């Protein structure tokens, strides 16, 4: 594909890749009941409790969410209507006034929680910090005032490009407090990727740090921001606010760059939360799709607040004494919903960890659990598989007895990893909540409730109350039990994405038109294949589009292809995912070269580095293969299924009759 930009997102459903087949699904019939002791204390104590609340929510979703909104959140003004659904556009709690920073902070200050630990932070080189609700509130108010002084007004977008330090959460809450939507960009993205996102969001200010510590290295975040803004490439950005973290030397541009700690010194801690309309934008978060540039997923205030609040409380059976730890980065939706907003809205203690597992620190997660007495631990299958490889001696040498609930997210968890998590970490007494959801859904969609839902290794089990999920064929007809199909959501929910930033049309095409609306009913197309078993349990089978998941990070193959073809040596590029034992998938690129260029190991390294510079290290191809031509159908489409087979080293079987030139196939196989 020489220029993969035309007509983005118009992928007709028939191009979505093969419908998942039953053969591809592992047969699994182990069933684990919730531990009796935990169930006895839980809000939902039995499967019939779950079924009852599910039935209640399904019978009248608006009444269900309305009741919870009143019970669980503080409102400056009540809403007039729970749901206004003009497919595919939804409005929740219209007429209401609310502020999520108020719900996460202020309302706890008049209770015993005022001096409870809100945020416990464990820094990578071993430093740590705890902020109580009162302290967190104070710092958020100060930074909200700093943002105002720097000219940020309600509605202005703010870019956040930070390491995993408390200031990242403070920055998000400060933006929310004054009604300035944030756009957090994961600190592992390159300057190029950052610039694209700042430009698309028209960010007025960027909050960053001099650097961060990641995998035994210092990451020069401020330098990346300088590169992103160089040559006035993101002209909307007027100021940069810099947290001092590493103390490595950086360049501060007079007039544009400001030290966080200097401005904080004189900032007032009095900053009332701005009453926001329910549907005011809370944040934009960019995510990869099958085509085109990453999409700015838009979330709004009230529905997101309610849904992350309720899902955190019920899915983790949150108790006042819990020490809750989610290992995600705040640069992803998991960090937004389940490190910051959901836990804080509930007045919980949330742990934030700057480190990531790596060979030099094979016990790092278990150390944090032991040190703080973590009771709820939420991580990703890729991390679990990494720890399996590192050996059981590390967790076994730590005291993990504080744990009571385990969670997983990001990709399907293989039963083997599930069983290891269950036995070695959970000591067979902690339920595992396998939560299926997406950037677009804002919160958990399919997940067990730990005291109520019996679990099966590898299944995300049943939909959350209020969520109506189906597995359908391309015409939107439900498929039979145990037959593979496309996962869809058939009724709107409070934290659904409202649109793609600045592009309603793309929103409609990407999520609502792959499966044709039937009888006026719009189905939300998740992009995942799934099957539902005879117990109504969902088994997620992975993406059916050209999105791959590398260590749980979502990457569009077309983004990586665009990065590759922007290199002068590359004529065409096709990128596919190859199954990897630890990372889930890794990136393999097939490339044809321009005129005089010749394939070599040096060029391979150069192209890998080029992708790192264009997107970030998470997208680095692990394998590059040069070819004279890419396999195409007679109508000129790259045959990705075939490339996937080749990438994984398997023999190509099945129908290759549409292949334009069979010699292409032989050549590619030889290079492998
Ligand atoms: C995948 C992450 C299986 C899925 C919260 C989805 C999962 C994509 C699970 C969204 C799970 C997430 N089981 N697959 N429990 N959770 N996925 O937007 O393919 O980064 O579409 O959100 O991750 O990735 P995203």
Commentary on this structure:
By secondary structure, the chain is of the alpha/beta class. Helix content is 31%, strand content 22%. The chain contains 20 helices and 30 strands. The strands form 8 sheets. It has an 8-stranded mixed sheet, with helices on both faces. The chain has a 7-stranded mixed sheet with strand order 5-4-17-16-18-19-20, with helices on both faces. The longest helix is centred in the first third of the chain and has 17 residues, at 133-149. 55% of the residues are buried. Residues 1-25 have low confidence and may be disordered.
Which SSEs are present, and which pair or pack?
Blueprint: H1 36-41, H2 47-59, H3 61-72, E1 81-86, E2 89-94, E3 97-98, H4 100-109, E4 117-122, E5 128-132, H5 133-149, E6 158-161, H6 166-178, E7 182-184, H7 191-201, E8 205-209, E9 212-214, E10 217-219, H8 221-229, E11 239-243, E12 257-259, H9 260-265, E13 276-277, E14 281-287, E15 295-300, H10 301-315, E16 323-326, H11 333-345, E17 349-353, H12 364-372, E18 376-379, H13 381-390, H14 393-396, E19 405-408, H15 415-425, E20 432-434, E21 469-472, E22 485-489, E23 499-500, H16 504-512, E24 524-532, E25 538-543, E26 547-550, E27 553-556, H17 557-565, E28 570-580, E29 584-593, H18 601-614, E30 623-626, H19 640-647, H20 662-671
Parallel strand pairs: 4-17, 6-7, 6-8, 7-14, 8-11, 11-12, 16-17, 16-18, 18-19, 19-20, 29-30
Antiparallel strand pairs: 1-2, 3-13, 4-5, 9-10, 14-15, 15-23, 21-22, 22-24, 24-25, 26-27, 28-29
Bound molecules: 5'-O-[(S)-ethoxy(hydroxy)phosphoryl]adenosine (WTA).
